[in-house]
Amino acid sequence: MQYLVSVIDDKSNPGSTDRQPAISAFNERLIAEGHWVFAGGLADTDAATVIDNRGEQAVFSDGPFVESKEYLAGVWVWEAPDLDVALKLATEASKVCDRKIEVRPFR
Amino acid sequence: MNRANVREAVSRAHHEEWARVVAALTRRFGDLDIAEEAAAEAFATAVERWPTDGVPPNPGAWLTTTANRKAIDRIRRENKRDDKHKEAQMVYDADPPEPVGAIDDDRLRLIFICCHPSLAMRTRVALTLRMVGGLTVPEIARAYLVAETAMERRITRAKTKIKAARIPYRVPSTEDLPARVSGVLTVLFLVFNEGYLATGPDTDPVRHDLTAEAIRLTRLIRALLPDDGEVAGLLALMLLIEARRPARVSGSGELVALDEQDRGAWDVALIAEGHRLVRERLAAAATGLAPGRYQILAAINAIHTSARDVRDTDWSQVLALYNQLARLDPSPVIALNRAIAVAELDGPEVALAAVNRLDGALADYHAYHATRADLLRRLGRSQQSRAAYDKAIELAGNTAETAYLTRRRDQLR
After folding, report:
1. Which residue in A69, B275, B307, B374 is deepest, having the highest Cβ count within 10 Å?
2. What positions does the domain RNA polymerase sigma-70 region occupy (chain B) (predicted)?
């Protein structure tokens, strides 16, 4: 079972910026325990572009699809046998990243 | 066999067997939705068949067999619909952790999945009442003053999440168990409290169906986890509160405060059972096991129910227990209740000073204003007392409580 694990930051109350060493160590563990599928930190939402090509022609818009105080700062994809395992890891991840974490199963 | 007897047999089987049937089917088919529907169909079949065929010698086995058959029928129908056999997605407990307590029971797995921390609290309550308690969706909707369709949606959404997110059907590991049991007890106490202090202008002040259901489910958990002190504590607490129910609302539908209750009307059997549990936990505490909040609350209630007359109440003991509780849970509500004991020991003036300090945290809590109103009344500060009663009445949601507060306010000189 795979889960999308989103790291959520808050523009008005951002998490601390010194987390990289702890995150790297946590990633090592995810790999060693067979949970790691993918991980990546994201650039600022200002760098996003939304493309809508449902109509006659493609429309590009500058910025994220939704403007909000809270935004996606990074993602993981984890392999875990069930939600309890994923939640336990996510509980640690939240401490490690000093940010909120959303766990969402893939279909 | 006459109709009334059959009806009674069905309702008894429903009480005793519903959770067992749903739990066994969930384990076998790995799907709460299939289990729930098949169990409901089996009971409907019993209602239909038992009056003519007679009540089977082992109703539980009959219901499980019938429900199994219904579930297989449904799976066959669905498999015909979409060719690919869809494997049940819920996680089977292939490698169960060490059995907990005396019994490793599927019903325990059922309780833990319904009270999973990833579900919203009100969803846990609804799911537990449906899957473990066997209440129908309309019954739960009525109990919580929610439209049936909304309640149905809430339960369906929960089942979908359990499946999609793969919430496991298992008893948590020893390491996680205390926190998860505590989550289950929160759900049950919430059900009990809604029954005990029902909200809503047109509801009965005490919803005996909900308090009884909460007690029944707590008894079940107690049977499944006999060594858990907090489970025993919560059961004792519920029993000792429930014991006072006959004296708690007057004939005219007004709440009767503890100090004015007819103690002769209290249920002695429930009190005896509650006291027995409290003694059991006191003995455990004597061996060095620190009691949790429910055990302490039960002990406080045991002191109240031990006093034949309100004047015999051992308030210093009550205060000592509240001090212990406040160390465990420094919440303003505990501090408020502690102040009531302080008033009895050190007088209303000292208690009022303690209560006033809680203003920031409890300004929207009716009991805060009711407590202040009573203390101000005892101090002869009628005008301030009246204002506090007004505020309490405005915030109270329970009809009996509103009636009581209104009378007390109108008696002020």
Report:
1. B374
2. 20-80
